[in-house]
Write a structure and sequence with these properties.
This protein has 616 residues and is α/β, with parallel strands linked by helices. It has four domains: 3-164, no CATH class; 180-284, Glutaredoxin; 288-561, Rossmann fold, CATH 3.40.50.880; 583-616. It has helices at 3-22, 28-50, 61-81, 85-88, 93-127, 134-152, 154-164, 180-187, 204-213, 232-237, 263-271, 273-285, 313-321, 357-368, 385-388, 432-436, 516-519, 548-559, 581-615; strands at 193-198, 221-226, 245-250, 253-258, 289-294, 324-329, 343-349, 372-376, 393-395, 401-402, 419-422, 424-425, 443-446, 451-453, 460-466, 472-473, 492-500, 526-532. Mean pLDDT is 84; it is low at 168-172, 516-522 and 571-581.
Length: 616
């Protein structure tokens, strides 16, 4: 930096310190700093203008321009001085405040508009002691002036932000809205539910929560927002220890959800607000149901499994969140005799060891009596034909499906071709949400077999999920398609089976002269069964993939005929981008090769163009 720039900047720094630290009083240090700063600024400007007389007349223009910008910069001190009480004291207080705001805004703008061009001119003069090019100096000064105007925009923006308390957040954010499932749960409430949100007045998080619950308020669901500090008795009654909580109250039962009161830390909760509220509402909307998992036959399990491909701990958390009590069902729990009466659904998840005949008989009796059953098979697993054949289904556990054009990459090896991915959903109720979102959601089946239905099945069999058309049964296990013995087609990966329960009354058609609604008999009981050609889709390693978790919810909604589990959950969480093998290669080569090559070509083109212009 040259002497002019140093003296000018240091001088104004001293003035700033004098006004900032000692301003508003009559302290002698204020006048010492202000006076010293003004003297240094004038000295710096004088040093610059002193060289004007040594230049020819055609090179004195930059000095005149510097003098003008120097005076503009010094005028900022005059504008600041006009804000003193001695000057504005005679005005109305409101007018004085308005005038002070305007002057305080103009002062830094005038200083920037004078200082940056002045420093640009001073640098140009220092670098050209022999001869100046006035036009270039002027262009540099105008560029600096444009920068000063751009920076000056921060002054009014800062004032408006402070005055109106506005928040600008350029990152994506939106609070989730109440989804179809939540609305169905509220509409189906049999007892009143009171929602109490504890947030202080002015809380941004509280406003978002209030906006979420507004459309849900009905005669059966009421909403109120209170401040924890102002309602200590209510907070103690509901066991709420601070603001940032939402309490759901039905009679003596209370469910609490912590959202948080700080907006930045509560953003993640707000994005998943609909899911959080559903988990609390479902516990109040109906009693807890019991889901049994068979054990003792090498099934996938949730406890003590270090292999994520065989652990069901995440699935258990999902069921618990849906207000299911998860229990084991084996010989010790009476499976050799019968399935417990409180079973809402029974899961058989990838049994690698055979069941006893008594256990198979108990499961068949449970299904035929109107129970809900999930049977998930695995390649090479135990023979479960005794469960499948009564429903008219077969499965070849020795013929694993494979695909070579679209699969889920897990290990990076050839075995990944067994990891089928499909979005081929029917319109069946067991995949209702997935079917509506098939363009965004898919289900992964890592190592699946096909489910085949007989032509004369005793119940109603629906092929609910099918594979992509390029899949084939890898009969020889070489992961190579053999056109002679293997066929590519859509294989059934999941079937939904319904069957009438013996002794239930059929629905009678309306008699002559009767309305259809008056004559309709109660809906007959029916058994509901889901059969899948894979069990690891629900394991910890895969259950969070795309639509796998939603498949659990959709299945349970149909199996248990629970409207609270139907519909969609709204979420504004960022979705992880999944790339195919080809897509990953494109991204890699695009970032490592194509993009640099493009910039190199553009750069060379620019160089050649400048040389061509220079030759003219």
């Amino acid at each position: 930096m040259n002497a002019t720039s140093i003296l000018w900047v240091v001088g104004f720094v001293l003035v700033f310190l004098g006004e900032r630290i000692f301003g508003g009083g009559e302290d002698s240090w204020r006048w010492i700093l202000d006076g010293s700063g003004l003297l240094l600024a004038l000295l710096g400007l004088g040093l610059l203008l002193r060289g004007r007389s040594d230049r020819p007349a055609d090179q004195q223009g930059p000095y005149n321009l510097a003098a003008g910008f120097g005076l503009l910069g010094l005028s900022s001190l005059a504008l600041h001085a006009l804000t003193a009480d001695a000057v504005l004291g005679g005005l109305d207080p409101e007018q004085a405040d308005q005038a002070r705001i305007v002057l305080h805004s103009l002062a830094p703008i005038a200083w920037l508009a004078g200082t940056l061009p002045l420093l640009s001119i001073a640098r140009a003069i220092t670098l050209s002691p022999a001869r100046l090019i006035p036009k270039l100096v002027q262009q540099g000064a105008m560029s600096a002036l444009a920068v000063s105007f751009a920076l000056s925009m921060l002054v009014p923006l800062n004032y408006l932000a402070a005055e109106h308390n506005q928040r600008w957040d350029l990152g994506y954010f939106r609070t989730a809205q109440a989804g179809a499932r939540t609305q169905a749960m509220v509409a189906g409430l049999e007892e009143p539910v009171r929602v109490v949100a504890f947030f202080p007045t002015g809380s941004e998080v509280g406003a978002e929560v209030e906006t979420y619950f507004g459309p849900l308020v009905t005669d059966q669901l009421t909403f109120e927002r209170v401040d924890h500090a102002l309602e200590p008795v209510l907070a103690e009654e509901l066991k709420i220890r601070d603001n940032g909580y939402v309490a759901f109250v039905r009679g003596e039962q209370v469910e609490r959800v912590k959202v948080g009161d700080d907006f930045d830390s509560a953003r993640r909760k707000l994005r998943k607000l609909d899911e959080e509220m559903q988990q609390s509402l479902v516990k109040l909307a109906r009693g807890q149901k019991v889901a049994y998992f068979t054990v003792g036959h090498g099934e996938l399990y949730w406890r003590g499994e270090s292999d994520k491909e065989r652990s069901l701990s995440t699935m258990k958390k999902v069921l618990t969140g849906l207000n299911f009590k998860v229990e084991e069902l084996g010989l010790a729990e009476g499976l050799g005799v019968s399935v417990p009466d409180d079973a809402a659904v029974v899961f058989v998840m990838g049994a690698s060891k055979p069941f006893l005949d008594e256990e198979l008989a108990a499961l068949n009796a449970y299904r035929e009596g109107g129970g809900a059953l999930v049977i998930a098979l695995e390649p090479g697993d135990a023979d479960l034909s005794a469960l499948l054949e009564p429903m008219g289904l077969t499965a070849n556990t020795s013929a694993e499906l494979a695909i070579d054009n679209y699969f889920l990459k897990v290990t990076g090896g050839p075995g990944d071709q067994h990891n089928l991915v499909s979005n081929k959903f029917s319109t069946h109720e067991s995949v209702t949400t997935l079917s509506r979102n098939s363009s965004q959601a898919a289900v992964a089946f890592p190592g699946a077999i096909a489910i085949e239905a007989e032509n004369a099945a005793p119940g109603k069999v629906n092929a609910v999920i099918k594979s992509l058309p390029a899949a084939w049964q890898d009969l020889d296990g070489d992961l190579e398609f053999d056109a002679g013995s293997e066929a590519r087609r859509q294989w059934t990966l999941m079937s939904a089976v319904t069957g009438d329960v013996a002794g239930s009354d059929p629905v009678m058609p309306p008699a002559d002269g009767e309305d259809e609604g008056e004559a309709a008999a109660p809906k007959p009981r029916e058994s509901r069964t889901i059969v899948l050609g894979d069990a690891q889709w629900a394991s910890d390693l895969f259950v969070l993939y795309s639509g796998n978790g939603q498949l659990i919810v959709d299945m349970l909604g149909w199996l248990t005929e629970d409207e609270a589990l139907t519909g969609e959950t709204e979420s504004e969480e960022d979705v992880k981008i999944q790339h195919t093998k080809e897509g990953q290669a494109l991204w890699f080569y695009g970032a490592a090769l194509f993009a640099p090559a493009l910039f190199m070509v553009l750069g060379l083109g620019r160089v050649f163009w400048r040389k061509k212009q220079g030759s003219k």
